[in-house]
Amino acid sequence: MNENSSLSVAAGTVIRPAVDYARHTVFSDPGDQRDWLADAPRTVAGIRRLAGTLIFHYRASGDPTALGFGPERLDEIDLRYADAILGRARRLQPGSITAPRGDLQSVLGCCRDFTLVFVAMARELGVPTRMRIGFGGYLIAGWWLDHVIAEVWDAAAERWTLVEPQMPDGFPDQQIGAPLDLLDVPRDRFLVGADAWRAARTGVIDAERFVVDPSNLIVFLRSWPYLAHNLVMDLAAVNGREPLLWDAWGELERFTDSSVETAELSAADFAALDDIAAALAEAMEPHVDPQASAVRAADVSNASGLGMPDTVLTLSPYGRPPRRTALRTASTPG
Length: 334
What we know:
With 334 residues, this protein is α+β, with helices and mostly antiparallel strands. It has one domain (31-326). It has 8 helices and 10 strands. It has helices at 44-54, 82-92, 111-124, 193-201, 223-237, 252-255, 267-283, 290-304; strands spanning 55-57, 107-109, 129-136, 144-154, 159-163, 190-192, 210-211, 247-248, 311-314, 323-326. The strands form 3 sheets. Strands 3, 4, 5, 6 and 7 form a 5-stranded mixed beta sheet that branches. It has a 3-stranded antiparallel beta sheet with strand order 8-9-10, with no helix packed on it. Strands 1-2 form a two-stranded parallel sheet.
């Protein structure tokens, strides 16, 4: 990190070893729901389709309560671990995981949850897979929306491919109009955190086009503050610390303070984030094999001091007070 950085190290940050992308993290481990995955497809295409049936987007798909979801179900969006999400889906509709299910039998969540379920099923097959946090340019024409998809190692092609777990077959790119390749999303249509940051910094894309939602004018949820947010979140995800999108730690907490009307980055902040983005982009280059990229990702995270700690601040999309959340340190249900 640049020695002049003003970015604070997150309290509780520890030095972590490289992960194995073919093995579960504490977040992706299906735990006591492993047996339920026995009927799941054995192909990337198959589990991509299946993941899309298990989650109902709490915002993009409409008002859940107006669509029949009881108010007691709204907290499903805070289910953090794959075993909890899969367990909830199983209770909503017992039987085979592949059986058709209606919207009300799906778990309320967001793009992160579609992706986590997909990652869990792919890793269960031994396929190196990781979550990527960034921005999609195919969701609303003219905008780059906060989004999460997966990255899968294609051993035959010796490269990582971006896979979109949320969208149905035939989904059209809203900017281009043509169907999006959901099993190999072009890297100029989804920008991972580092690529989005660098595109904005070089002026290739206006920073103001990066948003959670064009209609949401909260300062933190757009432009430079959110570009910084997704860069740090993606750094966590590729190190096996798959966060909720409303988690915060370290300097991210400053940007999420609702009492602050502006969320400005200093020159030192920009310099530090430039360094992180450059290092992470190099570490995560699509042709770098899983083992090497995992080691490089760990090096970037450990050097930055911005890795996800064992306790985070969890905010609420529903406007509830933020709370401190202690994360699992082992794959145990809870």
